[in-house]
Write a structure and sequence with these properties.
Order of helices and strands: EHEEEHEEEHEHEHEEH
CATH class: Alpha Beta
Strand content: 25-35%
Distance between the termini: 27 Å
Shape: globular
Low-confidence stretches: none
Number of domains: 1
CATH architecture: 3-Layer(aba) Sandwich
């Protein structure tokens, strides 16, 4: 518990009986598909704020929660999960390509996130500019991608709260820092996970492109849709590789 904070996350009167692992799924279609992939016998569900938590899947300690958007809400969910005993989290979200080498439907496994949100520095060191995932989980995700012949990009991403303030100036600035993509939650989840001493990993899927300074949405792109299914299937099998 953070003794400096006036309000702390608590288990509550009837906490869900979770294992130690949870997948935080940002987008509803991915959450729906992943829950269909998992064995549902004995599965339980409950609302957590505006999201849904599914837990108690047979033969696994895995839970899934989603959808959600933005760093503040993502970290509120993470804090609740930690209070309920979760110690390993994988975040699966979508992102916009910044690098010209990254296209819609590509997979990104971030090695760090540049902080440009309002939550991260409440958990990270003073004036920190970067946040980092758990190496163990990122290595596990990469190994699973290789095993399943899923190509991926490995590098930094830019985390921002303000999708409508992704200006040309900022895009150029983060391109110079070799950021592969922009998204909204990774830096905050990494920072909070480190602060609470739990492992947070991340896998992102490119849903749109900004590298040319014109927005190119790819949400209806057939490659993007197919790759969403592949990533969900990878996540389902991922936990079987680790005991």
């Amino acid at each position: 518990m953070d003794t400096d904070a006036i309000i702390n996350p608590v288990m509550g009167k009837k906490p869900p009986q979770l294992g130690k692992r949870c997948v935080m799924v940002a987008n509803q279609p991915d959450f729906d598909y992943l829950q269909r992939l998992l064995k549902s016998d004995g599965c339980k569900a409950r609302r957590v704020l505006m999201s849904r938590l599914n837990f108690g899947y047979d033969n696994t300690t895995l839970s899934i929660i989603g959808p959600f958007i933005g760093a503040p809400y993502a970290v509120i969910l993470l804090e609740s999960l930690i209070a309920w005993g979760i110690r390993e989290v994988i975040f699966f979200g979508w992102c916009g390509a910044l690098s010209k080498d990254v296209k819609t439907g590509d997979v990104i496994i971030p090695d760090k996130a540049f902080i440009d949100d309002g939550v991260s520095n409440n958990y990270a060191a003073l004036n920190a500019s970067e946040a980092f995932p758990a190496d163990s989980l990122q290595t596990l995700i990469k190994s699973s991608c290789i095993k399943n012949t899923i190509e991926f990009h490995d590098g930094p991403v830019w985390s921002t709260d303000a999708i409508f303030r992704e200006t040309k100036e900022k895009v150029i600035g983060f391109q110079k820092k070799k950021a592969l993509a922009v998204e909204m939650e990774a830096a905050a989840l990494f920072s909070a996970g480190c602060f609470r001493k739990i492992d947070v990993g991340c896998i992102l899927l490119v849903s749109d492109e900004l590298s040319s300074f014109e927005w190119k949405p790819g949400f209806k792109n057939s490659v993007f849709k197919e790759r969403r299914y592949q990533v969900c299937e990878l996540i389902r099998s991922l936990w079987n590789l680790k005991t």
